[in-house]
Design brief:
81% helix, 454 residues, mainly alpha
Length: 454
């Protein structure tokens, strides 16, 4: 029966599915390329042992807590430009690009300052001394890489608002090769370079992000199709109405990601209280789950672009069709991912580490990861298509409630009061994701019934 329903769905929504996938697949591949950098780092750092891997997990989680606000803010230009394209106001697109570039660089600088101050207070998080020591210098190096990352993000999100997705994908894939080579050279001290171990992984990330920024910037600046937008570092003036518009969509979007990613990052801290093996296992399982999430994030962005175009065209039917098609595709993607996690839960952890105790814990976490795939997919797409409507404040409240009012307290109780340990923390995350998915879907169903004027 379910097969018949799926066949009917694909027949009735063929054109919408094709449009969504044509925009989504370069983003999916590009996002997978980005997350593969983290996977490769984890694999290669894992060769150094559980403590460096735990330090990398802690560092990346803490940095991402604040970085995700800047990343979310940078994404705002995509739906705003998509709406302008749908409304045939392409002359205004360049203004949004230039102002978003300025905003994003300022945001990146603020994040770097927070990291510089924050590394002095790692001892307050209750982590082991060896993990703290290895994390400090690594965090500062990753902080430096934020500047080229924000430049790359600005150019990437702008051209994606114009429905041009492939350049960022190609550059990201090329950056993976640079990251692997730089990791090999700098982590293990090859070709006459000093053995930098975990810090080497940080410098490899910096170099790969610098390559991404320069490559995409050169491509866009010297491509004739973009010249009408003035896509350089030249700022004509500060356009405060546009800056306010970007921030009004971007900051709530950033806090949406903050509440979700922050919840997962705080989960890392709680798991660190349990033990280094549990923390290393969490890093492995969440790294694998992030691969599938990057895929559905591509569908989310594609759905948001098409919803934004439909808003610009003032078409309620097209808004709803585009949005719900994206949700359905996200569900299919994540269902397949969940099945893979269950079938290969005892084998996937071997990619990262050979420690039997860590592998046993990671295989258990992958079962829970498989269960929350569907919810994670729905909520990720829900945020994207609501952003296409420029509806960001309501989803921000939803994500806060789902993760910080529901998920983390339940995870803490299950882990430390009922003795379920790391499994309890992950069950809490599962419950939070499910609540978020339900509320965001209901909100899109309500908001999409009326066309929002822009």
């Amino acid at each position: 029966m379910s097969i018949i329903i799926m066949i009917k769905f694909f027949r009735e929504n063929k054109s919408y599915i094709q449009k969504t996938l044509s925009l989504a697949y370069p983003v999916i591949i590009g996002q997978l390329g980005l997350i593969m950098m983290g996977v490769v780092d984890s694999i290669m750092v894992g060769e150094l042992g559980a403590v460096p891997l735990a330090a990398a997990s802690l560092s990346n989680s803490l940095i991402f807590i604040v970085l995700i606000i800047a990343i979310g803010n940078s994404i705002a230009v995509t739906p705003l430009v998509a709406i302008l394209v749908g409304a045939k106001k392409s002359d205004e697109c360049g203004v949004y690009f230039r102002q978003s570039l300025l905003v994003n660089l300022v945001m990146g600088f603020l994040v770097f300052l927070i990291i510089l101050v924050g590394v002095n207070y790692l001892h307050l998080l209750g982590q082991s001394f060896s993990v703290q020591q290895k994390a400090k210098s690594y965090m500062i190096i990753i902080g430096l890489s934020i500047f080229p990352l924000m430049i790359f993000q600005t150019y990437k999100q702008f051209i994606e608002g114009l429905s041009i997705m492939r350049p960022a994908m190609i550059i990201t894939l090329a950056a993976n090769l640079i990251n692997v080579f730089a990791n090999w050279v700098l982590i293990f001290g090859k070709l006459g370079f000093p053995r930098l171990e975990l810090d080497g992984a940080g410098w490899a990330t910096f170099l790969s992000r610098l390559f991404m920024a320069i490559s995409l910037m050169i491509f866009v600046m010297y491509n004739k199709r973009f010249r009408i937008y003035d896509v350089s570092f030249h700022f004509r003036s500060l356009n405060f109405p546009v800056i306010r518009r970007i921030l009004s969509v971007g900051l709530p979007s950033g806090f949406q990601y903050f509440f979700e990613v922050g919840a997962f990052s705080f989960a890392v801290i709680m798991i660190g209280w349990i033990g280094a093996n549990e923390l290393a296992a969490h890093q492995i399982a969440i790294s694998l789950a992030s691969v599938s999430f990057m895929g559905v994030l591509g569908i989310s962005q594609a759905g948001g672009i098409l919803v934004g175009n439909a808003v610009g065209e003032q078409s309620v039917q097209l808004v709803r069709k585009s949005g719900f098609t994206a949700i359905a595709l996200g569900m299919i993607w994540m269902s397949v991912s969940g099945i893979i996690f269950i079938l290969f839960r005892n084998h996937l952890p071997f990619i990262y580490i050979r420690d039997e105790a860590v592998i046993r814990i990671a295989s258990q976490l992958l079962i829970i990861a498989a269960l929350f795939q569907l919810s994670d997919g729905i909520q990720a797409v829900g945020i994207g298509i609501l952003r296409g409507l420029t509806d960001v404040k309501g989803p921000t409240v939803i994500t806060f409630i789902a993760y910080w009012i529901i998920s983390l307290p339940i995870g803490y109780l299950l882990a430390f009061q009922f003795g379920y340990g790391v499994i309890g923390v992950w069950i809490g995350l599962l419950i939070g994701l499910t609540c978020s998915a339900i509320m965001l879907t209901l909100r899109f169903n309500y908001k999409s019934r009326k066309l929002i004027s822009v």
